[in-house]
């Protein structure tokens, strides 16, 4: 059984790191450094996978029965995860747009 506090912090930390790396990738793409942007997105994806893995374990342990105590910090962790996933999706799309723009002279 997962320690709830540890699991929640695992989601928050990993989701936050994923989101930060995504925005760093966006900055690189904006500057025309697409190779670095892709590297950062790959790193962000690894952190996102880790956060999602913790979330999945919590869901499995709950078994849809409400066994897992729902707290404000748990909701906060879920919010971090969902916003980091959304950021990753949108930033990936924005980077593809930057790639299509002509290079500035």
From TrEMBL:
Mg(2+) binds at residue 79. Its cofactor is Mg(2+). Keywords: Cytoplasm, Magnesium, Metal-binding, Phosphotransferase system, Sugar transport, Transferase, Transport. The modification Phosphohistidine is found at residue 76. It holds the Pfam family PTS_IIA. The keyword Secreted does not apply. One of its GO terms (biological process) is phosphoenolpyruvate-dependent sugar phosphotransferase system. GO terms for cellular component: cytoplasm. It is found in: Cytoplasm. This is PTS system N,N'-diacetylchitobiose-specific EIIA component. The lineage of its organism: Bacteria, Pseudomonadati, Pseudomonadota, Gammaproteobacteria, Vibrionales.
């Amino acid at each position: 059984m997962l320690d709830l506090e540890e699991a929640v912090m695992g989601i928050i930390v990993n989701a936050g790191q994923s989101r930060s790396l995504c925005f760093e990738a966006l900055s690189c793409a904006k500057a025309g450094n697409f190779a670095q942007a892709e590297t950062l997105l790959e790193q962000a994806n690894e952190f996102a996978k880790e956060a999602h893995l913790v979330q999945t374990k919590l869901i499995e342990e709950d078994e849809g029965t409400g066994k897992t105590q729902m707290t404000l910090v748990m909701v906060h962790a879920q919010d971090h995860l969902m916003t980091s996933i959304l950021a990753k999706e949108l930033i990936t799309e924005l980077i593809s747009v930057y790639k299509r723009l002509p290079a500035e002279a």
